[in-house]
Amino acid sequence: MDEPAQATQTATAFDEEAAIDAAIAQPPRELALGFDIGGTGVKAALVNLATGELVSQRARVKTPSPSLPEAVAEAMKGIFEIIAKEVEVPADAPVGCGIPGVVKNGRLLSAANIDKAWLEVSAEEVISSVLGRRVECLNDADAAGLAEVRFGAGRGAPGTVLLLTIGTGIGSAIFTDGHLVLNTELGHFRWRGTDSEKRISGAARERRHISWRKWATEFSDFLAEIEIWLNPDLIILSGGVSKEMPKFASFLKARAPIVPAHFLNSAGIVGAAMYAALVS
Ligand code: BGC
C-alpha cells in the first residue's frame, strides 16, 4: 500500500521542481499577485513577471496575533482590497503566497513562527476560500530565493547559491546551478545547543539587545559552520535584517561572497508571484 503513495509523491515533487526550473528560465505570464506571510507583517504587491518589478504599492499589515489561519487569510483579503483600489488586478492573475514553514501540497508541515493551527488545515484551501481566488503556497525563503535567482543577486550565478532570509526566524533556499532544492530549513540547524534562529534571527538580536557588531560576529560563526557542510559559492541575505546591511557588513565574514538581496525585504513577494504563475 505504501509504495504507490511514495511513487506519487516523488512524481509530484519532480514535476514541481521541473516547473520551477522552467520559471527561472522564462516567466510564464505577465502579472501575478505575491503575498508574504511573516512573523510580524503580512505583505503583498502586484508583480510584473517579465521584470520582477512591483507594479503596485507594497501593502503591509501587522500579522494578526494569534496568527490563526482564518485571521491571517482575512488580513490578506484586506491587503488585496488595498491593492485592487490602486491598480487593476486582472481576474486571471495568479496569486502566490510565501509562508514560514515547510510547505508540501499546499499544507504546512512545520510552524515555528506561525500558529500551530496551520498544521491542521490546508493553507491553500483556507486562503483561497477567504480570498475568493485560487492561491498557491510555498515556503517563504524558497519564494525569496526564486526571485533573487531569476532577477536579482543570484541571477546567472553558477554553483551553489544559498539565500538566507533573516527576520522573525531564519529561512533558507539552496540552488545548485539554478535548480531549487525545496524546503531546506537551515534556521533550525542545531547551533550552540539550540535552533540557530532562536539565537541569531533578527528578532533574537532585538530580544538579546546585542549590537550589530556582536550579532554579525556570531552570524559569521554560524556561516562558517554552514560552509563546512554546503560550501556555497554565493550567499544572499534577504528579510528584514538585509535592509540594515550597511550597519554590519564590515563585521560579517565567510569564504563565499555575501551580498544583500536585490529585492531586500520584497524578494518573498516577487518569488511567490512567480511561483503562482508557474504552477497555476
Ligand atoms: C521557518 C522557515 C521559514 C523561516 C523564515 C522558520 O522558523 O521554519 O520555514 O522560512 O522561519 O520565515
Question: Can you walk through the features of this model?
Answer:
The chain has helices at 2-25, 69-86, 123-131, 140-151, 196-200, 202-208, 212-230, 245-248, 267-279; strands spanning 31-37, 41-48, 59-62, 95-99, 103-104, 107-108, 135-139, 160-166, 170-176, 179-181, 190-191, 194-195, 234-238, 258-260. It is α/β, with parallel strands linked by helices and 280 residues long. The protein has two domains: 2-143 and 267-279, ATPase, nucleotide binding domain (Nucleotidyltransferase, domain 5); 156-262, Nucleotidyltransferase, domain 5 (2-Layer Sandwich), CATH 3.30.420. The strands form four sheets. It has a five-stranded mixed beta sheet with strand order 3-2-1-4-7. A five-stranded mixed beta sheet has the order 10-9-8-13-14. A two-stranded antiparallel ribbon has the order 5-6. Helix 8 (245-248) links the parallel strand 13 and strand 14. The longest helix is centred in the N-terminal third of the chain and has 24 residues, at 2-25. The chain is globular and about 45 Å long. Bound molecules: beta-D-glucopyranose.
Task: Give the fraction of residues assigned to helices.
Answer: 25-40%
Number of domains: 2
Number of strands: 14
Terminal CA distance reads: 30 Å
Can you tell me the CATH architecture of the largest domain? 2-Layer Sandwich
Radius of gyration in whole Å, from Cα?
Answer: 18 Å
Beta-strand content estimate? 15-25%
Helix segment tally: 9
Give me the side-by-side strand order of the main sheet: 3-2-1-4-7
Unreliable parts = 1-11
Bound molecules: beta-D-glucopyranose
The ordered string of helix (H) and strand (E) elements is HEEEHEEEHEHEEEEEHHHEHEH
Largest sheet: 5 strands, mixed
- Oligomeric state of this protein: single chain
Name the average pLDDT: 93
Class from helix and strand fractions: alpha/beta
Could you name the CATH class of the largest domain? Alpha Beta
Shape: globular
